[in-house]
Amino acid sequence: MVTVAIVGATGAVGAELLAVLERREFPVERLVPMASARSVGTTVRFRGADHPVVEAKADAFAGVDVAFFSAGATRSRDLIPHARAAGALVVDNSSAFRMDPSVPLVVPEVNPDALAGHDGVVANPNCVAAILTVAVAPLTKLGHVERLVISTYQSASGAGARAMEDLLVQTADHLAGREVVPRVLRHPFAFNLFSHDSAVEGNGYNGEENKVVAELRKILGMADLPVSVTCMRVPILRAHTATVNIEFDRAVSVEAAREAIAAADGVQLVDDPEANHFPMPNEASGKDDVLVGRVRLDPSRANTLNLLVSGDQLLKGAALNAVQLAEALRAAAS
Amino acid sequence: MVTVAIVGATGAVGAELLAVLERREFPVERLVPMASARSVGTTVRFRGADHPVVEAKADAFAGVDVAFFSAGATRSRDLIPHARAAGALVVDNSSAFRMDPSVPLVVPEVNPDALAGHDGVVANPNCVAAILTVAVAPLTKLGHVERLVISTYQSASGAGARAMEDLLVQTADHLAGREVVPRVLRHPFAFNLFSHDSAVEGNGYNGEENKVVAELRKILGMADLPVSVTCMRVPILRAHTATVNIEFDRAVSVEAAREAIAAADGVQLVDDPEANHFPMPNEASGKDDVLVGRVRLDPSRANTLNLLVSGDQLLKGAALNAVQLAEALRAAAS
Predict the structure, then answer these.
(1) Nearest by CB to B306, which of A230, A243, A297?
(2) In this structure, are strands A2-7 and A66-69 parallel, antiparallel, or unpaired?
(3) Which residue, among B145, B146, B148, B151, would best test binding to A if mutated, counting the most A CBs under 10 Å from its CB?
(4) Is B300 close to A236, i.e. CB distance below 8 A?
(5) Which residues in chain A are contacts of B149 at CB distance < 8 A?
(6) A158 and A281 co-located in one domain
(7) Taking the CA atoms of chain B, what radius of gyration do you get in angstroms?
(8) Is there a single domain that holds both residue A139 and residue A288?
(9) Residue A334 has pLDDT above 80, yes or no
(10) What's the rounded mean pLDDT across residues A21-45?
(11) CATH number for the domain including A282?
C-alpha cells in the first residue's frame, strides 16, 4: 500500500487521475491531493470520501511513494527534484522532462522496455503522441514506417478544465444570440476551429506540433522518422481525433493492418464501411482504448495507408497512461 | 435584363443564391423561385419583395434565361433537359453532370477557359473542390504539383439547411442535458465529428472523397494528379476548412507561395504566426474570398508545403461560384 500525491489534483487531468486510480484499484493507502495555494481549503472526492487539498510546495512530499505531476512544466521543474529527494517515484504529465535523454517517455503498450532505465522520474507523453503511438505501433510490424502525415482534430480538454467550460459557455452564448467572448483560448471556440493555440516556433510549426514530432520519434524509437503534422483545435470536449497517412517501405494490405490493430492492446478496431461507422470522439470519450479505423490504401502513393484515430485525451492521452506507468514502475520495483 | 429561375430556392444554397444575385446586382428582371410541390405557397425574399415559390417541373421553364439548379442530382437529371429545351442557360450546383466530358466544371479564377466549350449547361463544383482549387491554383506557378494529401473539416451547411438547424438543436439539447437525437445526419453532431456521411464506395473512399479527387483533377486540368483525401464533418455551421500537404517537382519557398496567394483572385492570405492568426471558419463565413495561410515547409519531404484553407461553403463552395459562372456565361454570350 502506498501514499500517492497528485500535484494538480483540482484540474481536468487531476480529476481523471483520481477516477482511474479508483477504478483500477491502485493500492492507495493515503492520498495527498496538491494544488496551488488558492485551492487550499477545497477538497477532492476519492473512494467516497473528501480529501483536503494541500499546497504543492517543496516540503510537501514527505512520506509520498508515488507522485503524479499534472500542473504544467514550470511546476514540474520546480517541485519534482523535491519529490525525488523525499523518495517518491514521479510520473510527470508535463513536457518538462519528456525530451531529457535520461528520462523514459513511455506508452506501456508501445515501449515498455524504456522504463528500465528510469532514475525515479518517468515522463507521460503529450496527449496526441500517446494516442497516435498506440495506434501506429501495431502497424510497425507490417513494414518500416517511412513517413507520417498527420492532421489533428483536438478537443478542448487538452487546454484544461477551464477551456472545456469556456467551450460550453461560448456555445450557450452563441445559441442565445449573445456575444461570444473567448476567455481561455485566443480565438472564438463556439462553432469554430483554429490552428493549435501554442506559439508558432522558428520552423513555422507550433509548440504542440513540434512536441508531437519529437515525442513520436522518441516513443517509437525512430529518431529520424519523417513526420508532417498540423495540429488543430476543434469544438469537441474531451477526445482527440487525427487523420494519419502512413507510408511503409514495402507493400501493405488493408487486411493485415486491420488484423494488427485488432490484435493489439490499447486499441480497438472501429471500421465498418457499410454502416459508415468509424472512430468518433463521442464514442472514444470515456474509453480506455484508442479507436482506429477507416483503414484504406492511399491511391496517391505506393505502400501507403490512410487511418482515422480517436482517443480520450484525458484517459490514454493523460491520466490512464500515467496510472499505467505507475503500475509498471511498482511492478518493476517489487 | 434576364429572367432567372432558382430550382431549390428554399434551401440553404437557394437562400445564398438570392443574396449573392442581389449583392452583385445581377440583372434580374424576373425571378422564378422553384422548389418541390410542398414548398408551393411559400415565398422567398429578393430585393425587398416576396416572390411566390412555384413547383419545379418540366413545363416551368418557359421564358427563363438563366436557371440555377440546387436541388440535388436527381432533380437536375430530370429537369435540366427541359430547362435547356426552353432555352435557358443552366448552372448546375449538383453532381449530376460534373464529370460529363461535354460539361465544363469551372471555378472562374482557376479554369475560365473551360467555359468556352459549353453547350448550355455548366457544372458548379463540389464545395470542397471549389474551395481547394481556388487555394491551390496560385501555387501551380511554383512548380508542377506531384501530390496532394488533404484532410477536411467540413461544416453542416454542406448537408443543407436542415443539417445546420439540426446541429443547433442537438447542441442546445446537449447543453440542457437532454438526449441528443440525430435527425438529419447519421451520427450525433453536437460536440462530435465523424467521417463524411456519404456512402463508402468500393475503393474504401466515401462519395464525397471520390468527388473531390475527380473534380480537383478536372478543374486543375491534371487528369492523373495523385490525391489522398479524408473528408470529415465537424460541428461548424457554414465554412469548410482543410489541411493541404502539397508536393512539387522542384524546390519551393514559403515566401514565393505567400506572394502567389496574395496576388491571386478569390483568395486572401491569412498568415500571421506571431499572432497565431490563420484561416478559421468563423472568419471565412460570409466572405467571398477563401482564406489561405499557415504556409510552411514540410520537413518530412523535399519540395513540399503545408497549408491551411478555409472558405465559406455556401459562397465560394456554392452560390458565389454559381453566380460568377452565370456572369461569365452572359459576358461570353454578349
Answers:
(1) A230
(2) parallel
(3) B151
(4) no
(5) 149, 245, 300
(6) yes
(7) 20
(8) yes
(9) no
(10) 97
(11) 3.30.360.10
Query: Which of B287, B156, B170, B186 is CA-nearest to residue A171?
Result: B170
Active-site option among A82, A196, A240, A277: A240
Per-residue model confidence as pLDDT tens digits over B4-55:
999 999 999 999 999 999 999 999 999 999 999 999 999 999 999 999 999 9
pLDDT at site B1:
83
CB contact under 8 A, B280 and A193: yes
Q: Which residue of A has its CA nearest to B156?
A: A191
Of B191, B274, B297, the CB nearest to A235: B191
Catalytic annotation present for A240: yes
Residues in chain A closer than 8 A to B297 (CB atoms): 204
Of A82, A118, A127, A277, the active-site residue reads: A127
pLDDT in tens, B202-225: 999 999 999 999 999 999 999 999
| Nearest-angstrom CA–CA distance, B106 and B3 | 23
Cell output for A104:
523514459
Shared domain check, B112 and B66: yes
* pLDDT tens by residue, B298-310: 999 999 999 999 9
The amino acid that residue A261 corresponds to is I
Q: Do B114 and B199 share a domain, yes or no?
A: no
Quote the ipTM score.
Answer: 0.96
Q: Are residues B72 and B134 in the same domain?
A: no
**Which among B172, B194, B296 has CB closest to A204?**
B296
Q: Range of B119's domain?
A: 2-125+318-333
Angle at A199 between CA A197 and CA A204, to 5 degrees: 110
Assess whether B290 and B143 both reside in one domain: yes
Average pLDDT in chain A = 97
Nearest CB neighbour to A234, from listed B153, B172, B243:
B153
We report the CATH number of the domain holding residue A38 as 3.40.50.720
A276 and A138 together in one domain: yes
**Counting one residue from A and one from B, how many pairs have CB atoms under 8 Å apart?**
157
Give the DSSP per-residue string, B150-183: EEEEB-GGGG-HHHHHHHHHHHHHHHTTPPP--S
**B280 contacts A194? CB cut-off 8 A:** yes
Which residues from chain B sit within 8 angstroms of residue A191, using beta carbons? 167, 235-237, 281-282
Give the minimum alpha-carbon distance from A134 to chain B in angstroms, rounded to a whole number: 21
Which of B85, B3, B69 has its CA nearest to residue B34? Answer: B69
CB contact under 8 A, A276 and B241: no
Please give the Cα distance from B147 to B134 (Å, whole number): 17
CB contact under 8 A, A282 and B241: no
Question: What is the count of structural domains for chain B?
Answer: 2
pTM of this structure: 0.97
pLDDT in tens, A52-65: 999 999 999 999 99
In tens, the pLDDT along A122-176 reads: 999 999 999 999 999 999 999 999 999 999 999 999 999 999 999 999 999 999 9
Please check whether residues A199 and A287 belong to one and the same domain.
yes
Catalytic residues of B: 127, 240
Contact B276 A199 (CB under 8 A): yes
Q: Amino acid identity of A58?
A: A
Q: What is the DSSP string of A52-102?
A: E-EE--GGG-TT-SEEEE-S-HHHHHHHHHHHHHTT-EEEE-SSTTTT-TT
